[in-house]
Amino acid sequence: MSPSVAVVTDSTAYLGAEATGRWNITVVPVQVILGDREIDDVTSFDAGLLTHALKARSPIVTSRPAPERFADAYQRAAADGATAIVSVHLSGALSGTADSARLAAREASVPVEVVDSGSIAMGLGFAALAAAGAAAAGAPVAEVADVARRRAASTSTFFYVETLDYLRHGGRIGRGAGLLGSALSIKPLLRMADGEIGVLEKVRTGSRALARLEDLAVEAAGDRPVDVAVQHLMAAERAEALTKGLTARLPRLVRMWVAEIGPVLGAHVGPGMLGVTIAPATLD
Q1: How confident is the model over 38-53, as a mean pLDDT?
Q2: pLDDT value at residue 206
Q3: Which of 198, 228, 231, 197 is CA-nearest to residue 91?
């Protein structure tokens, strides 16, 4: 039997079918238009094709879901017995996805609480999982939404990109930062802060970036029990190395997630991206 509060998120959480199925989370896909192809972010795709398009500077456009897609998701949840819905989405500073969800929420047949996670990838995914756990435990809609917000706020996300050019081209980071990265041939370390992507540090080599990402994650974890996600785009070997390093250094690691991101986020960060998200396993 479905919980009375249903949880909806968008595909940029990159939770995977196993987790969304187990926790009864509905995923609304964000789209990417690659040449003459429109791809849902939940559809299997050729990462090499995306990489080729990025390097060739082919037109790539990402598109928030239409409100009708959210309306359909909310209608299905209500038909399955949900009496309320919590809809958790990527940062409103990066996308209009949460705005589309709010438009659909106005017409939904049951109350819908839209939560802007202020994050992306597993920074969003951990918030959606926390909401689903609270919903499964029978929490009311306001509490489910509050749990999602609190976990999102307590989560730290750091990532490395080969170049800032893709983020600058997509308007997700300031032009000055992008030019600085190109001019100095640096390897930027970035973080999510206040819903936006900002440059945290600048390092000279990929190996140094990997080591620094590991240190940042360990510092963010502290002595708490934590869930950790390592996500990448065409950087499987580095992701494996980071996973091994963190597993060895985090004695209170509860669960490790490792996954490759999809085309929507990939279009903005480019091949070689490596990220780590740290989330407290329990909320105070």
Answers
A1: 73
A2: 80
A3: 197
* In contact, 42 and 22? CB cutoff 8 Å: no
Tell me how far apart the alpha carbons of residues 124 and 14 are, in angstroms, rounded to a whole number.
9
- Secondary structure element (H or E) that encloses residue 147, with its range: helix 141-153
Contact assessment for residue 125 and residue 9, using Cβ atoms and an 8 Å cutoff: yes
Maximum Cα interatomic distance, the chain, rounded to a whole number of Å: 57
177 has pLDDT over 50: no
Name all contacts of 161-165 with Cβ < 8 Å and 24+ positions apart: 161/187, 161/188, 161/190, 161/269, 161/270, 161/272, 161/273, 162/187, 162/206, 162/270, 162/271, 162/272, 162/273, 163/188, 163/270, 164/188, 164/199, 165/270
Angstrom CA distances, 243 to 41, 221, 230, stand at: 24, 14, 7
Residue 263 to residues 24, 43, 180, 199, 270, Cα–Cα distance (Å)? 24, 9, 26, 22, 9
Q: Is 29 exposed, middle or buried (0-12, 13-18, 19+ CB in 10 A)?
A: middle
- Look up residue 15 and give its DSSP letter: -
